[in-house]
Amino acid sequence: MTMPKEAQENVQRLQMLEQNLQALNMQKQQFQAQVFEIEGALKEISSSQSAFKIVGGIMVSSEKPALQQELQSRKELIELRLQTLDKQEKQLRDKAKKLQEEVLAGVKG
Question: What secondary structure, in 3-state letters, does the chain show?
Fold first, then answer.
């Protein structure tokens, strides 16, 4: 039994959507790991007397409040990116679901 050409194209589109979803999930995981690292750094800074940061391969002394602000800003930016990725993921999943329904209807019909 062969599928109609339109159904085959929809299956290919569906596979591409799945690949995009996988790439999106990988990006999300990387950003979530960065948030985790930043939270750990903020925790360490809050309980230490002095703070250091790595700049171009060397460690330099840094003012604690400035470093905390820098890390907090970076964390907020990454969290915004995660929210954007969540929205993109939802859109892709909705498209994939609709396309899957079309493929199933085409195969049954």
Answer: CCCCHHHHHHHHHHHHHHHHHHHHHHHHHHHHHHHHHHHHHHHHHHCCCCEEEEECCEEEEECHHHHHHHHHHHHHHHHHHHHHHHHHHHHHHHHHHHHHHHHHHHHHC
Cα separation of 91 and 108, whole Å? Answer: 26
pTM score:
0.82
Domains of the chain and any CATH numbers: 5-20+34-108 (1.10.287.370)
| Tokens (6 digits) for 102 | 């079309």
**What is the separation of C-alpha 53 from the centre of its chain, rounded to a whole number of angstroms?**
25
Q: Are 54 and 31 in contact (CB under 8 A)?
A: no
**36-89 residue pLDDT tens:** 999 999 999 999 989 999 999 999 999 999 999 999 999 999 999 999 999 999
